[in-house]
Amino acid sequence: MTIDTKDLLNSILSSISRIDYIRPNEIPNIDLYMDQVTTFMEEQLKRTKRYEEDKILTKTMINNYAKNNLLPPPVKKKYSKEHVLVMIFIYYFKNILSIKDIESVLTPITEKTFDKEESLDMTSVYEEICQMEKSRIDDLKKDVTNSYELAMDSFSELPPEEKEYLQLFAFICNLSFDVYVKKQIIEKMIDDLADADSNAKKKK
Fold first, then answer.
1. Which domain holds residue 44?
2. 80 — phi, psi (to 5°)?
3. What SS3 class is residue 54?
4. CA 55 to each of CA 39, 45, 50: distance values in angstroms, whole numbers, following the listed order
5. What is the tally of structural domains in the chain?
6. Would you write out the chain's pLDDT as a tens digit for each of its 204 residues?
């Protein structure tokens, strides 16, 4: 097995550079039926799929999101721009968080942004988050490069035919460790938020 790890790294860095997001002005300003929502999401996010047959969003998923209180109910079977933005957040969150955790994170936002009497709107929240994440692209590339270089320095005393895969394995482990630690931090934050909310309700 021969893998050009340098090409692999360049490919990864190139893909990170291409990371983009659905801009709010690309979302129709008219309310959409469920079929229109799934079509829109499929078209806009298809580049993020690992396999061609993967589904970005289905009717069943939307119904489950509403059933599990991740998504406010539609109005006359139609979904607003705010609904679509929430579904984009869910799409990215569900890769690392449980449905219950996603509900905990999103509910305080949706309660405010779907309340017409509140000044906060989902478009502003979404735009601010996406701009923040885009600004981190260069830092992400540096982190990945650092993980790669650490891995390529490992198993240095082994013969080439043995260390090649082990260095690739080390690179995967470095990246996985980063994901694991950050997932632990996120879950701890969510648990703390849930505890704070529970204590606040008890005092009322």
1. 5-203
2. -85, 175
3. coil
4. 11, 10, 10
5. 1
6. 566 677 888 899 998 888 888 999 999 989 999 999 999 999 999 988 989 999 999 999 999 999 998 999 999 999 999 999 999 999 999 999 999 999 999 999 998 888 767 778 899 999 999 999 999 999 999 999 999 999 999 999 999 888 999 999 999 999 999 999 999 999 999 999 887 766 666 666
